[in-house]
Structure formats: structure tokens, C-alpha cells
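Example 3.2
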Amino acid sequence: MPHNIRRQHLNGQPDRVFFLCGILMLCSEAAKQLVLTFVLGNGYYNWWYFPFQLCSIPMYILLLLPWIRRPGMRRTLLCFLMCYSLLGGIAVFADTSGLHYPIAILTFHSYTWHIVLILLGLFSGAVFFRSSLSGNSAHIPVRNLLHPFAGSTALYLLCCAAAECLNLSLDRFGTINMFYINPDYRMQQVVFRDISMLIGNRPCIALYICATVLGAFLLLLVWFLLFRLFPRFFRRLDILLRNS
């Protein structure tokens, strides 16, 4: 790639961090898929492990984000990472049974992946809010938060729709439950698996999606509170990243 094109897109330390993390996650995911297929699966692919879960989406976003120049779209993707991805990284530790595999290196990969999601969510939030600094003020218009969150929520719902399409179209090839919303399988997420016994599986799936949006919104409010309470941190981060 020509040097001038590379500089035009990978502009600044955050973009370099995002892209490097995306590459590392892609390589580790490819290695995981090979082990699952040829070591555990004896050459047969298990669609259950297809990389299109909520915790997989950040990998694709990280590879895409550095090449996007439109500020609104960048803030939407950052908002997704700092709310939805951070939520996914945190929530999985409420029930770690899904992180364990028969091979220790895959278990290590799962734990590391979700810890990285948390760290990337925190870094994305810091990058998102540092761009909101205006002089010595820590004030940020509500619309500057709600618009990116609305966009990130639309992206989440679009991913849910795509996941459901994968679930229904690939069901005949094996067990598949992208985003854990396949209506053919009982909800497995902690708390929601008990709720599904009371209200039924399909209503519980809808409730699960709504609860995810609510959880992401609560994280947005936490970010806003941190921004108002600790503006100096974001200001120093802004100076650090501008000089890097």
C-alpha cells in the first residue's frame, strides 16, 4: 500500500490500535476455527462456532473502523464498541460455562477474547468522549450521545436480524445459534433461560434483545457520568493522542 494512502486512513494512534487489535483477533479466530474443525471436529465444521455472535462483531468493526472517515459513522461504531461490545465482554462472566473447551488453549482464547473486549470497550469510550471536549467545558449535548447510540442500536438490531437469517437458513446443516436467538433452541443465557420457562421461548428472545439494548444504554449513562466527573482525564488523553 502506498505510504500516502496508509497515512490518509490510519490517522492517529487510536486507529493503529484498533486495526492491530482487529488483525490479532482475526488471526486468533482463524486458528480457533482450524482447531475446532480439524482437532475436535475430525474435519467436520461445527456451525455452532461460526464467528457471528455479539462478541464476534467487534473483530469486524476493528478491521473496518480505521478506514472510515465520516465522523458520524465513526462515532456510531465507537459507541457500539463502548456499549454493546463492552456489555458482551462483561456479561459473559456472569456464566463462564460457555468459555470452557476440551482443549485448554481454546479456553484460554475465550477468556482472553472477552477480557480484550472489555479493554477495547474502555479504550473506545475514552476515544469517543475525548472528541467531545470543547475548551474547558465538560458539557456535551444530549444529541451527541443519542444519535451515535441510536446508530449503534440499529447496527445491533441489524446484526440480530442477520444472525436469525443464519440460524434459520443453516439449521439443516447442524446446530447453530447465532446471538443465542434461534427460536428452535431454548434460551441458554443466565436468568433468561429461567424466564423462557415462564413466558415461552420466542417472547423471551424478544425480551433478551430489549434487555441488551437497555444494558447498553445504561453503560452509555455511566460513560456520560464519568465524562462529567473526570473531564481532566479525557482532556489529558486528548493531548496524549494528538501528540502520538
